[in-house]
Structure formats: structure tokens, C-alpha cells
Amino acid sequence: MRLVLLGPPGSGKGTQAARLKEYLQVPHISTGDLLRAEVAAGSALGLQAKEVMARGDLVSDDILLGMLESRFSRADTANGFILDGYPRNQAQADALGMLLQKMGKPMDYAVQLEVPTELLVERIAGRAAAEGRADDTPESVRTRLKVYDNQTAPVIDYYRQHGQLTVVNGVGSLDDVFSRLIEALSPAKEVG
């Protein structure tokens, strides 16, 4: 199963992706982790990314897509993957769709974890307080969530239009949310 996990900061994507990885027996691919691994390995794309980051610029979509193509070519993705952190905008969604079609590995599902804004603010602010970080104030979290909503709304629409989107309630215990995810991904479940 090939799926994209969508959700704002604090929605539980990382936690649920780790659980889904074990359940589905497919790798969890985080673009942030992938980028750091490629840079550490000194691959050609990793060296390009390192140079871009050293200038303080964002790594281009082309470099990220090249890293994803390389990662999707590995044997452990034969039965699928969970993609987290990508795509973040319409251009990335289009490019990812074309890449996967070219590779003969089209996306099966896009799952959006839906959590009310105020609960997200509470979760992130609580996490920041527990970690002793002062940067995640309720105001800054709300601003980040607005940016996320503006950037990812087209991505959500992209997967909805392709009949691949399913929305899962991300409120409740970890087990409750995980159960909803498994139900949403069952073959009998209609998406869209």
C-alpha cells in the first residue's frame, strides 16, 4: 500500500505513521529524515542539498523529487510506503503523481488526519512546554497552522479530485485514531 499521510503540525502524523509502518510492514518515509540521510551519506543529491542549505536556501522540489525517486526504487518499498511531509503544495503533488506513474507505483491513498485548531494549539503548546521550548507560543502555533492550511488545501483538493482522499478524525486516544486509520485503509472502504 502506497499512501500519503497529511495533517497539520500536532495532528499525530509521526506517531500514527510509526504504528502504520509496523502494521502494514512498509517503510515510513519522512522527507526531512530522507534529506538528512542523503546529506550524511554524501550522495550526489545530498551534496547538492547540502550546498543549497549552506546558503540558507530551501532545497528545490527537483532535488527532493530525485531523492524520493531513489528511495522508491529500493527493494523495501516493493509492497508500498507511508510518505510523511510531502507533498506540501500543488506543484509537489503533481510532480509526485507523475513520478509514481512513471515508476508504475501509483498512490493508493491520501489520508488526512483532521484535528480542530484549538486542540492542535493545545497539543503543540503542551509539547513545547514539556520540552522546555519557548518558540511554540499559542500565537505562533496559530500562525503556522494558517500557513499549513493555505499551502496544503490545494494538496487535499488534488487527492480529493483523484478519488484518493480519505479523512480520519484525529481526536481521541492513540489506539482510537489508529483503529480509524486501519478502517479507512481497508479494501472495502470507499475514498473520496
TrEMBL record:
Keyword annotations from UniProtKB, A to Z: ATP-binding, Cytoplasm, Kinase, Nucleotide biosynthesis, Nucleotide-binding, Transferase
PROSITE patterns: ADENYLATE_KINASE
Main location, first listed in the record: cytoplasm
Kinase keyword on record: yes
Binding site for AMP: 31, 36, 57-59, 85-88, 92, 133, 144
Subcellular localization: Cytoplasm
UniProt: ATP binding residues: 10-15, 127, 172
Molecular-function GO term, any one: AMP kinase activity
Residues spanning the signal sequence: none
Family: Belongs to the adenylate kinase family.
Subunit comment: Monomer.
Protein name: Adenylate kinase
Organism per entry: Pseudoxanthomonas sacheonensis
